């Protein structure tokens, strides 16, 4: 390429030189023919002179051109030499370039190999990182489980310590054995036989410990059973408590009816010619206000079973005393007593089933009398046993 360009440049140079020479010659000829045309006749002689001068001039020019041509040929030779030199240089450079290219190819190949090697290393590294992460996660899980196990162990130990005195005694015995073992260890170098014995002993203790652990497990199971039993008892207790509350409520809500009243503070109460309704005027108790101290009547506020009683007194002197009890004007009792001298009493009680509104009262027959003072010799009482 470089060679070709040098040759072309040289050729162009030579051509341009030739052309410039030729053109200048033509111009001179042309100019001369014009001037010849302008002064044709007058310049015949001078024309001859001019031609020879011109010929001389041309010869000189040819000589000059020959010189120039020689120079040019020299130049051309030099240029050819230069060209050869350049060509050889070029060839050397080509070889060098080829060598460099080969080296570059090798380097590229080597680079590619290194690239693939690097990719392999990276892949391996990624795998290692993944492995590492997995191992870390596993390690964390194992640690968590370990912590849980440790907590469980602590709990179990506490429970075992609290639940069983046996384990404590075994631990004490184990501690004593460990002390023994320490002594034995000091003599172990000289007494391997003793060590064997010790090992056996330790094995036995381990078995004992294992037995104790079994016992602990048994105790735990018993404890669990007791727990469930306790839960059952608690449930029953809760039910019972509820029942008690309900019963208390029932008791609270049960109608409360009870009364007692004394007859009078003013001595004798006497019936005339007719039966006399007794009015126990001194209210001692009157819960529920079912008894009236102005009429002497008890009126049942609820359907139920009631108990009524009375004790009345008279100072008898060869005479009778009487008392009657009525339910809704129907006689329930009639009692009599006779004495010749001194105080006498009549007393009785009765259980009656009453409907709401049923009335109870007491009477003495005509000509009969009773006695009472602030000492309450004569009283009338009643109360509700239970509701029906
Ligand atoms: C009679 O009963 C009324 C009403 O319960 C009471 O206020 C009064 O104190 C009673 N009388 C006597 C003397 O107990
Ligand atoms: C008789 O009963 C009334 C009323 O409850 C009471 O105040 C009085 O002390 C009683 N009399 C006696 C001697 O107990």
From TrEMBL:
Segments spanning the bilayer are none
Signal peptide from the UniProt entry: 1-24
Please state where this protein is localized. Secreted
Q: Kindly list any coiled-coil regions of this protein.
A: 139-173, 202-250
Query: Which Pfam families has this protein been placed in?
Result: C1q
Q: Does the keyword Metal-binding apply?
A: no
Question: Can you give the residue ranges of the C1q domain?
Answer: 252-388
Query: What's one GO-annotated cellular component?
Result: extracellular region
This protein's source sits in the domain of life called: Eukaryota
Q: Which SMART domains match?
A: C1Q
What keywords sit in the KW lines?
Answer: Coiled coil, Secreted, Signal
The protein depicted here goes by the name Uncharacterized protein LOC116223861
Q: Which lineage is the organism of this entry classified under, starting from the top rank?
A: Eukaryota, Metazoa, Chordata, Craniata, Vertebrata
Q: Which gene encodes it?
A: LOC116223861
